[in-house]
Design a protein that fits this description.
about 425 residues; eight-stranded mixed β-sheet
Length: about 425
């Protein structure tokens, strides 16, 4: 029986001679070649988008609903070792054709559906953006936590958050009603590891001793330093590191509290109608950050084993084992608003509804409050001084005034620090 022609694994290629067909080995198909899918309504052909209310795809034209295909796997989601084999078999791209929006103002890069008409950066509100086709070379997420908070709820949550501080302008609540919230999946790395440490340190034990001086008995405090040692083992489970360094790490840290029991296998359908960000912090750099956090928490656990809180000459030998990681997407709502020609940013945890963001400070109100705190102490101190000069109970009045002044200064410092932390995020 003659061999089949062309042989298996060969494919036709263009020929330089007319009438002659040329065959060559077919290029190997990569297992990570991204599958591109489109989300069109099977009833009317319209655009479908992910719905946070019911967790499926909903047509924006005829209300056709398609339930989600993949069930949550939670903490049982597969974890990956730090091996070359893992990276070689990893899929790449978003799994669907998307476009990118690069902001020329804040530098953020967001992935959008092809049919999205937005020309505004969700993170700073700037319209100085460049659109291009999204890269399919990035590592594809394995899991995500779907949105659970409805976009309409973000306005109510934000109004309550903006009005929760007396330092903010009274008109700020009105801005929450008009702020446009964009659902964005942000990239995160999660890490698991077991840390084992052997430590030793000098630990101080305080005691009081009596001694004789000049014919009188006195007391003094003495610290006795003794060497102590111990062993610590900590299991670090799902320590998360943001996969982007172009957003406020302070705000991202305040949005923690995701329930990883809701982890669901990645499907491009979850991104329908939503934005997403690819990671700009690679796995190796994220693992360095995670190891440092694990090292510090292990060090604190070692110190807590000491018999007292006075520790010096501390040292520990630390080992990492059972190291694994995941690349996941977590749901965030982002809104940018302007107040007195200054841009501010608000984020809402798309799973829990926790709000974090920037709020302008009504400095007139703050300074009036500081003045009201300091005025009684200053006035009583001055009255006490005058009374002391002309006789009377000036010492008592002045002492009480000085006490009120000190209390006022302490409270004023706390208020000013809170105001500056709100203003400088």
């Amino acid at each position: 029986m003659p061999d089949p022609f062309p042989p298996p694994g060969f494919a036709p290629i263009p020929s330089a001679i007319e009438g002659i067909q040329v065959y060559a080995p077919a290029p190997a198909e990569s297992a990570s070649q991204p599958e591109v899918v489109e989300f069109k309504c099977p009833q009317c052909g319209g655009v479908t988008a992910y719905s946070a209310q019911d967790g499926g795809l909903t047509c924006t034209y005829c209300a056709y609903y398609e339930p989600p295909e993949k069930a949550p796997v939670g903490k049982g989601a597969q974890e990956f070792e730090f091996t070359v084999e893992t990276m070689d078999r990893a899929a790449h791209g978003w799994g669907e054709a998307r476009k990118e929006l690069e902001c020329q103002s804040c530098g953020s890069i967001a992935s959008l559906p092809l049919d999205s008409l937005t020309h505004t950066c969700a993170f700073c509100g700037s319209n100085q953006v460049i659109q291009r086709q999204a890269s399919q070379d990035i590592l594809r997420p394995w899991f995500l936590i779907p949105f659970k908070v409805d976009p309409a709820a973000c306005h109510k949550l934000t109004r309550e958050w903006m009005g929760s501080s007396w330092m903010t302008p009274a008109s700020l609540k009105n801005l929450a009603r008009v702020a446009e919230f964009n659902g964005v999946y942000l990239p995160y790395w999660t890490f698991d590891s077991l840390t084992s440490a052997a430590w030793k340190a000098e630990v101080g034990h305080t005691r009081t001793e009596r001694y004789r001086e000049g014919g009188e008995w006195k007391e003094r405090t003495v610290v006795d330093w003794r060497w102590e040692s111990g062993q610590v083992s900590l299991n670090h489970d799902d320590l998360i590191v943001p996969g982007t360094q172009r957003l406020s790490q302070v705000l991202l840290d305040r949005l923690k509290g995701f329930d990883f029991q809701a982890l669901t296998p990645y499907d491009p359908k979850y991104l329908a109608g939503l934005q997403a960000r690819a990671y700009d912090l690679p796995l190796e750099k994220a693992w360095e950050i995670a190891r440092e956090k694990m090292r510090e928490s292990t060090r604190q656990a070692c110190i807590s084993q000491a018999s007292t809180g006075q520790v010096r000459n501390f040292s520990m030998n630390l080992d990492f084992s059972a190291e694994s990681w995941r690349y996941v997407l977590l749901p965030i709502y982002v809104a940018a608003y302007r107040y007195q020609d200054k841009a501010f940013q608000v984020m809402v945890n798309g799973q829990t509804g926790v709000v974090a963001g920037q709020r302008p400070v009504d400095w007139t109100r703050v300074w009036l409050s500081v003045a009201a705190l300091l005025a009684p102490g200053l006035l009583l101190s001055l009255l006490g001084l005058l009374t002391l000069i002309f006789g009377g109970v000036g010492a008592i009045i002045g002492g009480f005034g000085f006490f009120l002044l000190v209390v006022g200064v302490v409270i004023a410092v706390i208020i000013l620090r809170q105001a500056m932390s709100m203003d400088d995020l």
